[in-house]
Amino acid sequence: MLLKPGHLVLLLTLFILVNGCIAQFIPEVGEDQNLLVVDGIITDQPGQNSIKLSVSTPLGGKSGAKPLSACIVTVSDDFGNSFKFGEAVSEAGTYYPDASFCASVGHSYTLNIHTGESRQKLSYQSLPITMKSVPPIDSVYWEKQVLSVDSQGWPTSEGCQIYLNTHDPTNSCKFYRWEFTETWDFYIPYYVPNNHCWITENSDKIIIKNASSFSDDRIVRQPLNIVSNATDRLKEKYSLLVKQYSVSEEEYSYWEKLQNVIQHVGSLYDLTPASIPSNISCIENPGEKVLGYFSVSAVQTKRIFINDYFRGIINLYSDCEHKAIGGNEVPPNLGVLVWIIIDRSDPPPGYKILTFLKGCYDCTVRGTNTEPSFWNEGKK
Q1: pLDDT averaged over 10-residue windows placed end to end, the chain, 380 residues
Q2: How large is the greatest C-alpha to C-alpha distance in the chain, in angstroms?
Q3: Does residue 340 form part of some domain?
Q4: Does residue 144 form part of some domain?
Q5: Is the domain of 333 the same as that of 240?
Q6: Is 216 a domain residue?
Q7: Which of 7, 167, 328, 361 could form a disulfide with 3 if both were Cys (CB 3.0 to 4.6 A apart)?
């Protein structure tokens, strides 16, 4: 399902070793099988639709799922229209529709896949899925959390917990799913050409809620994300964009089963066992197992910014200064294996401080120096 951009990218494999456990987890899949992995979502918003196809690695393989290129991918609706999804030039195995494409609430959509020579020219088709409406997000908010205190009880390190509130006045949305995208900026603490960058990461969590037992279909204090002090996310400014989906009971069951597996074997990217039913099947061979899910849902979004001081945030640049040289010296391999992060050569003789880590000189090693278009929305 979701994952880039804004969708959970299920880079699924068929093997995993659980560190620290007594026994190895063995999925219910034969060692000789290479299964089709489908990670697809269409919404009622342009630019938030993609189909990602890959082939799983057999048990014991050396790499994860491999992108499946050169497929013919279409989505058809209940009016007989067919929309082609073309493969992205820069993203093998990822297929996008025309930029103006968006689905409509109340209509049904079916995914159709025709593979190329690499997969015996097989045809796959999803069940028809009706798009359900989803209510707006009422609020996204955060609360500071004390992570540790000193001997007198004063906080020494802090993080935050992010929550969501929502409700459906029509009482028709019973099963919810959320995903989020984090963006934060950071500074390299030296006067270098690229010292201010941004990092954007998509969530790797399954966040779902069954509201069918709630009389008023109201969700309060739904946990979304815990941001600790173990990264520099909260050092400067942090943003979280949450997406809210309304899913069917069948899709909710899929995510719930996958969530239960992940709690025992690892993370979202480790494994989707073939024992979890997909809503996609092979036309020529109905008994063939397919991994993943084709999701159809309306989407609501809301963004939050966090600008505050948090104690005890890790300093990722404390070990940057490796060597001092004279101000007139030019180190060998400058710009390749060594970089100048402090230059005090004027007035002479002065000195220079070198680093052997490019990330201490150039922030684009970790992120991008292009400011996101939405960043000024969260001015301090």
Answers
A1: 39 34 40 80 94 78 75 96 96 94 95 91 97 96 96 95 95 93 98 97 94 86 97 98 96 92 60 77 94 95 97 97 96 96 94 98 98 85
A2: 78
A3: yes
A4: yes
A5: no
A6: yes
A7: 7
Q: Say which amino acid occupies 50.
A: S
Give the chain's domain count: 2
Confirm whether 34 is domain-assigned: no
* Helix/strand/coil (H/E/C) assignment for every residue in the chain: CCCCCCCCCCCCECCCCCCCCCCCCCCCCCCCCCCEEEEEEECCCCCCCEEEEEECCCCCCCCCCEECCCCEEEEEECCCCEEEEEECCCCCCEEECCCCCCCCCCCEEEEEEECCHHHCCCEEEECCEECCCCCCEEEEEEEEEEEEECCCCCEEEEEEEEEEEEECCCCCCCEEEEEEEEEEEEECCCCCCECEEEEEEECCCCEEEECCCCCCCEEEEEEEEEECCCCCCCCCCEEEEEEEEECCHHHHHHHHHHHHHHHHHCCCCCECCCCCCCCEEECCCCCCCEEEEEEECCEEEEEEEECCCCCCCCCCCCCCCCEEEECCCCCCCECCCEEEEEEECCCCCCEEEEECCHHHCEHHHCCECCCCCCHHHHCC
Q: Calculate ∠ Cα 356-358-362, nearest 5°.
A: 140
* Cβ pair 230, 152 in contact under 8 A: no
**Are residues 240 and 327 part of one domain?**
no
Task: State how far Cα 9 lies from the chain centre.
Answer: 6
- φ/ψ of 251, rounded to 5, equals -70, -40
Size of the chain in residues: 380
Tell me which amino acid residue 125 is: Q
Structural domain including 191 reads: 137-244
The last residue of a domain, from among 214, 244, 274 = 244
Which pLDDT belongs to residue 155?
Answer: 93
Chain segment 78-100, per-residue pLDDT in tens: 999 999 999 999 999 999 999 88
Residues 143 and 239 in one domain: yes
Structure tokens given for 108:
């049904």
Residue type, 266: G
- Residue finishing a domain among 244, 264, 295: 244
